[in-house]
Amino acid sequence: MNPDPISSTHSVVPTDDHRPESWSTSLSRAVRCPDTLIEALGLPDELRESAGKAARLFPLLVTRSFLDRMEYGNPEDPLLKQILPIGAELRDVEGFVTDAVDDSAARKAPGLLQKYRGRALLIATGTCAVNCRYCFRRSYPYGEEPRRLDDWNAAIEYLADDSAITEIILSGGDPLMLTDQRLDELIGRLESIPHLERLRIHSRLPIVLPNRLTDRLVQRLRNSRLTPIMVVHANHPNEIVGDCEIALRKLVRDGITTLNQAVLLRGINDSADVLTELSRRLINVGVMPYYLNQLDRVTGTTHFEVSDEVAIQIIREMRARLPGYGVPQLTREHAGAASKTPVY
To answer: Which of 106, 139, 195, 322 has the fewest CB atoms within 10 Å, measured from its CB?
Structure first.
């Protein structure tokens, strides 16, 4: 663990008045400068130049909670490699494009995407609490999407007019970057559409900013007319520790169905040992492994790609070690397809 003084300000440590730190305060202390990150973790100075160049294209952002789970002085730490800008991101490689999953073609109204029958997705916000370097929406035009509640009118009308849509997905960015009040208002508008049955929230915050799971938020989801499903995003077992583990247990014990989707990433989790341990830790806190996604081929992410042959062998080994419910589906998203495509 990181021995730097940064660890003394971990988000679960009470403030001077003995109250837990609010998630907004924790977020305000996130690291946004590559030099700060390198100094805090005692990383080699030679990383500075490439990190600075890559961060100008896609900014660095990482919470202190996630940073505290990284090994001090280790440039190969699997959590660090998910968020550290590096020179490989600057390479222009054929087949890697800015909109690998063709989000632009799925846009039905401002902030609303529909790719698959029976469900649609709202880009609730363009902001996140951590910028994952493999992000498939790292070039998404978030500035064109709704910001005020009234800006959602066209999307709400589209959903209300299509009775075949029974599930709405809140995504982004990260929808839990909205305040409890803003989420309450948006969910309320969705609840007013009679044929909607389920509310699915895709969020990295329960992993990287666990104190975002406020009592008010969890109660709002639990009391919704819509059946809530939380899909979190963890890629490595070292993420499911400490305040993250506590937050996930709380979410599950409060009755919220919780699933995990991971991305298969070269040099981070491309082994059966790592992914088996990730599944075990998830299962032990009540979170079900859901998807193991093959990388979306977005510009700047080529160094993360794992071949299908390696991916399939990993899944075979996981099936031999885990109960069936502990093995995620290995999938890939093909632009224009009717669903995620199983790889194996």
So the answer is: 195
